[in-house]
Design brief:
Layout (H helix, E strand, L loop, with lengths): L8 E4 L4 E4 L10 E5 L5 E5 L5 E6 L5 E8 L8 E7 L10 E7 L3 E7 L4 E7 L7 E7 L10 E8 L2 E7 L2 E2 L1 E3 L6
Antiparallel strand pairs: 1-2, 3-4, 5-6, 6-7, 7-12, 8-9, 9-10, 10-11, 11-15, 12-13, 13-14
Amino acid sequence: MTEITVPVNIYRGLRRLMVATRLPGLEPQNIRLEVDAVRSLAWEGSNVPKIKHQVPAGTSEIESGEIHIPNDADWGTGTFTTVFKPDGLRSNDDVTSVMVSAPRFKIAATVNPSGGVPVLLGRADAALPFDHVTFRLPVDIDMSAHHTLQIQFANWHIVSATLDGEMLSMVPLATTH
C-alpha cells in the first residue's frame, strides 16, 4: 500500500469529531477508515481507477477513445471505449481505434465497411496472453449519428462489446478440420 499525506479539515462537536478531506478517484464504498488508541487516523482505498486515459481522435471518423483499467496490477481487465463522430461509421475504409502502453498492453477495435468489428487484446510486445474476437454491427443503425463502442475485457479475454449500450453479437470463429 502506498502511503500519502493529504490535508484534512477537522470539525469538533460536543460528542462528535468529523474529518473531511478530498480523496480523488475513491468512491465512498471503497474507503476503509481506522482510528487507533493513540488517536491517529488512517484510511485505505481499494478498487481505485488506476489507469483512465482519454485521447482525442486521430482520425476524421473518431471523436475520442478511452481506456479504463481499474487495477494497475491487472492490465487484462477493463473497458475500452471509442466515440465515433456523426457519419464516422459510414466510411468506405476500415476505422481502427487503438490504445497502447508498450510493452504491457494493446487493444484495437476495427469497424470495417461490411459491419464486422474485430477486436484484438494482448501485450504490445506480442507476448502472451492474447485474445481476438469479432463482433457484428446491427444492420439498422443510423450511420449519421454519434455512436459509442465499448469493449469489456477480463483476465485477458474479450468479454463483450456494445454499441450505444446495445450488446453486439459475436461472430463465431471459423474452424478447420
